[in-house]
């Protein structure tokens, strides 16, 4: 363990945390500790870290802003790689932008609109990173990441490789990536538009989001995927679960597909409430809700 720590620390120059509580890194503010919490500051460091972990046979997970994550209270054995240090981006000719995985989506959307690049303005206000948004095929208002991603660079043990949008097989809130790879950089192609009109659209989206989703506490956005032809929040409401609570968490009165933590909630409370909602919706409508949030870690 010591020599693994030393190897990681040498590459990351001190940015190796031990037993780091993941509640500090998820928007729900729940989640137990990660054995190792690693914060590479460059793609070179990222590949080097993956090589060390691979040689040592240490399992790992990657997280961005933790805005679509439920980490169980037992935390994560092995390593968690946080992409927050990978934030470079540059404009390419022809309406293209290259962005590293840890760049906040809000920065990408603001900067692309200022350049007169349309394609992601409807996603304004989604609190994730570029890498997390690609992995989830994040979307809103008729736009999604799949509409702009052209290709990407995946980091693997000691090396990088290109991966095309076609290989991603984007679908509703999902994208196919090899299990042992991390999105390091994404190349995005936009459509030209008027910068002022784009900025106005972003402002409208932010107002709309605040009105519809200002739920007043830590949350992870929509908990369940919309089943085909249905809206998850309506099903939760029909099942009488709006306002239902468990321990320190409750279904938002404002948006029935959001679960809000009052600050005392634990991952176990959220999992129990999610199961109660699933059972209530199944009993009422015959529809099985599927989690949109990714669930990681040990009980
Ligand atoms: C208030 C609120 C509103 C939201 N609204 C929306 C919305 O309108 N539409 C929508 O689609 N989502 C929405 N979300 C959910 C969430 O913000 C998005 O899914 C976001 O794109 C997740 O990005 P992240 O960086 O937080 O990913 P994380 O939550 O950190 O990770 C999500 C998944 O992506 C994987 N991942 C992260 N980074 C990488 C990487 N570099 N390479 C490979 N895999 C990676 C993780 O392993 C995990 O499986 C909302 C969330 C909140 C809290």
Automatic annotation (TrEMBL):
One Gene Ontology term of the molecular function aspect: UDP-N-acetylmuramate dehydrogenase activity
Name by which UniProt lists this protein: UDP-N-acetylenolpyruvoylglucosamine reductase
Pathway: Cell wall biogenesis; peptidoglycan biosynthesis
InterPro entries recorded: FAD-bd_PCMH, FAD-bd_PCMH-like_sf, FAD-bd_PCMH_sub1, FAD-bd_PCMH_sub2, MurB, MurB_C, MurB_C_sf, Oxid_FAD_bind_N
Reaction(s) this enzyme catalyzes, per UniProt: UDP-N-acetyl-alpha-D-muramate + NADP(+) = UDP-N-acetyl-3-O-(1-carboxyvinyl)-alpha-D-glucosamine + NADPH + H(+)
Lineage, broadest ranks: Bacteria, Pseudomonadati, Thermodesulfobacteriota, Desulfuromonadia, Desulfuromonadales
Domain FAD-binding PCMH-type: 29-193
Keyword hit for Cell division: yes
Superkingdom of the organism of origin: Bacteria
Segments forming a coiled coil: none
Translocase recorded as keyword: no
Entry's Gene Ontology BP terms: cell division; cell wall organization; peptidoglycan biosynthetic process; regulation of cell shape
Keyword entries, A-Z: Cell cycle, Cell division, Cell shape, Cell wall biogenesis/degradation, Cytoplasm, FAD, Flavoprotein, NADP, Oxidoreductase, Peptidoglycan synthesis
Active site per the UniProt annotation: 173, 222, 292
NCBIfam families linked: murB, PRK13905.1
A GO cellular-component term linked to this record: cytosol
Function: Cell wall formation.
Pfam family, one: MurB_C
Similarity comment: Belongs to the MurB family.
Alphabetical list of HAMAP family matching this protein: MurB (MF_00037)
Organism: Desulfuromonas soudanensis
Places the protein is found: Cytoplasm
């Amino acid at each position: 363990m010591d020599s693994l720590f030393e190897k990681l620390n040498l590459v990351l120059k001190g940015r190796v945390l031990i037993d780091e509580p993941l509640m500090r890194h998820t928007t729900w503010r729940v989640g137990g500790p990660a054995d190792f919490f690693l914060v590479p500051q460059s793609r070179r460091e990222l590949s080097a870290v993956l090589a060390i972990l691979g040689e040592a046979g240490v399992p790992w997970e990657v997280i961005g802003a933790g805005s679509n994550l439920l980490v169980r209270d037992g935390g994560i054995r092995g390593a968690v790689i946080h992409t927050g240090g990978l934030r470079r981006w540059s404009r390419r000719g022809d309406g293209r932008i290259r962005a590293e995985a840890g760049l906040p989506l809000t920065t990408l959307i603001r900067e692309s609109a200022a350049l007169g690049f349309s394609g992601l303005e409807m996603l304004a206000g989604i609190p994730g990173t570029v890498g997390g948004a690609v992995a989830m095929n994040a979307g809103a208002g008729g736009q999604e990441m799949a509409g702009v991603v052209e290709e990407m660079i995946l980091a693997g043990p000691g090396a990088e490789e290109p991966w095309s949008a076609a290989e991603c097989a984007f679908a509703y809130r999902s994208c196919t990536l090899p299990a042992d790879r991390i999105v390091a950089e994404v190349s995005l192609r936009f459509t030209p538009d008027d910068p002022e009109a784009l900025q106005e659209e972003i402002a409208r989206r932010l107002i709309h989001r605040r009105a519809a989703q200002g739920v007043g506490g830590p949350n992870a956005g929509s908990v369940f995927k919309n089943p085909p032809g249905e809206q998850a929040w309506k099903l939760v409401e029909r099942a009488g679960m709006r306002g239902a609570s468990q321990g320190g968490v409750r279904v938002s009165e404002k948006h029935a597909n959001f679960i809000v933590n009052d600050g005392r909630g634990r991952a176990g409370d959220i999992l129990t409430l999610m199961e109660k909602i699933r059972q209530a919706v199944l009993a009422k409508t015959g529809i099985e809700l599927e989690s949109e949030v990714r669930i990681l870690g040990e009980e």
